[in-house]
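Notebook entry, structure prediction.
Reason for the run: the old model in the group folder had no record of what sequence produced it. Starting over properly, with the input documented here first.
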Amino acid sequence: MDARGAYRTVLERIVSLSDKQREVMGRCAIAGQPLGDAAKEMRIQVAAARVHLHRARQALEDVRSQLQELGVIDTVEGRQ
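New structure, fully documented this time:
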């Protein structure tokens, strides 16, 4: 897979997430908001937010590995 294909796959996976999974992923994994703050603003329990985040990360895990292999994201930090 090339970088373009990986990017397309990431977008498809993000679209396939539930609304809650996408929101908590955006707040915590992308914007860096603490899980407790995200849960409070989303009006859900922290445990529920944790489950949504875990499931979102699971859905994207194989794509993350591919992006690491392509050198698009850092293997230590998981960030570009």
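Summary: The radius of gyration is 13 Å.
The old model has been moved to the deprecated folder.
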